[in-house]
Design a protein that fits this description.
Elements lengths: L7 H7 L10 E4 L4 E3 L13 E4 L2 H6 L3 E2 L5 H21 L6 H8 L3 H12 L3 H14 L8 H7 L12 H5 L3 H5 L6 E9 L2 E7 L4 E7 L2 H11 L4 E4 L5 H12 L15 H11 L7 E2 H7 L6 H9 L12 E2 L12 H11 L5
Parallel strand pairs: 2-4, 5-8, 9-10
Antiparallel strand pairs: 1-2, 1-3, 5-6, 6-7
Helix pairs in contact: 3-4, 3-6, 3-7, 4-5, 7-14, 13-14
Bound molecules: zinc ion (ZN).
Zinc ion binds next to loops.
């Protein structure tokens, strides 16, 4: 995009506004060099300037980083500081005060608040609330390391940190915080080969397939996941949809044809997509899935994403095993996992 005097970014460049470092870079067509907004070097003519959201985009367009302001390092440093704050928030039982976060980041409170909001898309306070809710939703027990927490929040590398909150959370932050407020969700309870099943959907697709032992606990689980949604029992018009889903659970050959509307983080969606690529009758290990999504170190986070899968069998998390071939966990009980796999191997009854 061309620089113009109306562009707030050009104003930031003219003012050498270092609080914008990491938010974007500006590149100069004549020198083929890109800089952070706070670069102390002389200012180019506005007609020669192009803006990029990230240093990576500037590099991809054939520009080289300025040796004086080192725009890549600036972006990394800001990203690291904000990452560090996110880690601190994620590890704390109660949200740390703004002053403590700013001090840890080596910034003034005002500057920190501004940079954090710019990078994450919400204030540190809002982020802390969101993390706490995410923690409540997590179904797997056990401690989560900092790296895993970041993976789960959708940040699979520091460079990818520049995502807006709605991408990281899988839905706009306001909707997420409201627990599905204003959304109508239909649901049906029926039988499958592995017991009672609750099937639920929005207007866009299925949002939940849960197994359970009793209807009451299944309804409670649905309500806990969408506390502010308007839940309605499925009518006649959804009978075929429910029947097709049950048929798929009983023998999940081929691809599931109904649309899914599952809510999760960017990382979870990546894992769930990889799970859907495991063919009927085959299995993969958590490590292999981590490898396939390009995050080989994230085995544990992959296991957590499997545990957070809201759509049993449609997203076949039961096809993921430990590296030693043992079953590993299953959100709906290892017995159900064993039974589903047994049937897929053709060992019916
Ligand atoms: Zn520079």
């Amino acid at each position: 995009m061309q620089a113009s005097q109306d562009d707030a970014r050009w104003t930031a460049v003219l003012e050498r506004d270092s609080t914008c470092d990491g938010a974007f870079v500006f590149a100069v067509r004549t020198t083929r060099i890109y800089c952070r907004p706070g670069c102390p070097a002389r200012r180019p003519k506005p007609e020669h300037v192009v803006f990029f959201e990230t240093a990576a985009e500037a590099r991809a367009a054939g520009f080289r980083p300025c040796l004086r302001c080192r725009p890549d390092a600036a972006a990394d440093a800001t990203g690291e500081a904000v990452l560090g704050a996110c880690q601190l928030i994620g590890e704390s039982e109660t949200p740390p005060p703004l002053s403590a976060l700013a001090e840890a980041a080596g910034m003034s409170r005002f500057h920190f608040q501004r940079v954090f909001k710019r990078e994450v898309g919400m204030s540190p306070k809002q982020y802390a609330d969101t993390r706490r809710q995410a923690r409540l939703r997590e179904t797997l027990p056990g401690a989560t390391s900092v790296t895993e927490a970041l993976y789960e929040a959708g940040y699979d590398s520091a460079a990818r940190f520049y995502v807006q909150a709605h991408r990281a959370l899988g839905m706009p932050a306001s909707d997420y915080k409201a627990g599905g407020r204003g959304q109508a969700i239909w649901y049906a309870l029926t039988n499958s080969i592995v017991g009672r099943v609750l099937i639920a959907g929005t207007a866009r697709g299925l949002c939940a397939i849960f197994f359970g032992d009793g209807d009451e606990s299944l309804e409670t689980e649905l309500r806990a996941r969408f506390p502010n949604a308007h839940l309605v029992a499925a009518g006649e018009d959804l009978r075929e949809c429910v029947a097709e889903t049950v048929a798929f659970i009983d023998l999940p050959k081929g691809a599931f044809r109904l649309p899914l509307d599952v809510q999760g983080t960017a990382f979870q969606h990546k894992v769930w997509k990889a799970l859907r690529d495991i063919p009927f009758g085959e299995t993969a290990t958590y490590a292999e899935i981590a490898e396939r999504i390009g995050s080989p170190a994230a085995t544990r986070a992959v296991a957590n994403a499997c545990g957070a899968n809201p759509a049993a069998v449609a997203v076949p998390c039961h096809r993921v095993l430990r590296s030693d071939g043992s079953l590993g966990g299953y959100r709906w009980g290892v017995d159900r996992k064993r039974e589903l796999l047994r049937r897929e191997r053709g060992e019916s009854n």
